[in-house]
Each structure stands twice: as structure tokens, then as C-alpha cells.
Amino acid sequence: MPNVSDIIKKAAIIAGILCAGVSHTGCSPHSGNNSSGRLLAKVGNARLHTSDLENAMPGGLCEADSIKFARAFIRKWIDENLVSEIAASEIDMAGIEQMVDEYRRQLVMWEYRRQMADSHTDMSIPEDSIEGYYTSHSQDFKLSSPIVKGIYLKVAEDSSDLPSLRKLYTSHKDEDMDRLEKLALSSALHFDYFRDTWINWTQVESRLPYEFADGGQSYLRKPVPLDFTDNGYTYLLSIDSVMPAESIMPYETARPLIVDRIINTRRMEYDNDLRKLLYDAADSRGEIEILCDMGS
Fold this sequence. Notes:
By secondary structure, this protein is α+β, with helices and mostly antiparallel strands. The protein has ten helices and seven strands.
């Protein structure tokens, strides 16, 4: 009986299973009907061939990892087929088939309704409609966490540009910002200019090896420029504007949420109209017969 190592080596030569780009499609518990190559395992009427293994093998594995993967894959295939064979003889397959049919009907129904809504829902929304919605429903759009505007830099502590960056990152002069950008692009490992865009505070905090008390809430009440060095890097942070949690979102932050809400409302309205249309059409053709009391 050939061992797994020999099979993998031979399969690698024949089918190139160690080459990058081989699909990782896997196979079903009863694969083998359209499989080819050397037979690797049998469970009842199920057959596992080298082609099944080749299709499942990820690309780029070394020989040792390929053998490890193959052993695990073959054992998993055997386990699945054993359980499947035993389960098929001991459980109510009629009930399983009924659940499968019901699930299929649900999938077909939802996919049809999704496609119809996608193709018939108007996705264009005038800006004044979005602004009007924001004005009327602003209380619905509250921040779950603080958002901020400012500047963030990460620079090697031995950078020759660090002294200049320190002088510039808190400035609000246009000429200083132009110079800061030029220096940062050439010497900073990270440079984020977000004075014109609100971003979530957690995005900023996650980049700093700095322990903020209470998640930075105290710091954000009166933010001061940060300048500290850790593990060979200097971090510079200047926060110019803060909107705390529970504040009403600024329009530019709420806008994409409003667009999604309006479109989803249109989709639901279309879906309701579609179902009513289908019902009425079938009813007019006499295809619906209700033989029980539906109530009022």
C-alpha cells in the first residue's frame, strides 16, 4: 500500500499541486463520481481520488506542509463519509429532504426578490432630500464613539527631519502645512492629515503605543499635542476638533447612513408592492384558493 508521502510527491509531479494558483474548492463528502487519478480512500460507495486532493490543496505549500494537509484532508473525508453513511440509515431522511426543499424555496424566493429590488429600486437621491432627512431625523444619528480631526505622524526617532516636523505639525498656516506634507512624505513612516475629515477616535488611538486613561475620554475633553518616543519611533499627534460620543453626527458622517436608510426603505416598499402584485395577479387567474378562515 503506497504511503501518503509517495502519493503527494507523485501527485505534485503529475498535477503540480504545489504550484501557486491551484483552486481550493474542496470536495463534497461523496466526491468521486467525476474524480480521476489514484484512489486514496473508500467508504462504502464513496471514493476519494488524487484529483479531489489536488483540487483542495492550497497553492504554495512546501512538501512537509502538503503532506500534513493531505493527511488531515483524507482523515476528514473519511470521518464525514462515515458519519454520513451511518446517519442516512438512522435518521428520518424524509424530514431532511423536507427541510432541504423548504430551504431551497426560501433561497429562490429571497434571491428573486433581491434581484427584482436591485433592478427596480431608484438609487439616485437628490442632495436636498438627504439634507432634509438629516434635518428631520438628526436625533436618529448619534455618535457611538468620539470622532476627531487633526494630524498624526510616526517618524524614526533618529530622522533628520524630526525637529522640523515637531515645529510644523501644530501649525495652521497653509505654507507650514505644505512644508509639513513634503517632509512627512519623504521621512515619516505614517502621516495622516485629517483636519478636513472626521474620523473615529479609535482609529487614531489604535496607532499609538500610549495608554490613555478611560479610553482617551479625559484627553479628548481638552486635547493637547502629543510628542513621545517609543521603541525607536517618535509619535506626533495634534487634535484640533472633537465631537464626543452621543453628539449628533455631522452631516458628512451621517450622509452615507441616510442614503442607505432611504434606499433600504425604497427596497422594502418595492418588495411589498411586488408581493401584492404577484398575489393579485395569481388571485385574478384563480390560482389561489384559501380553504380556511384567515380572520380580519
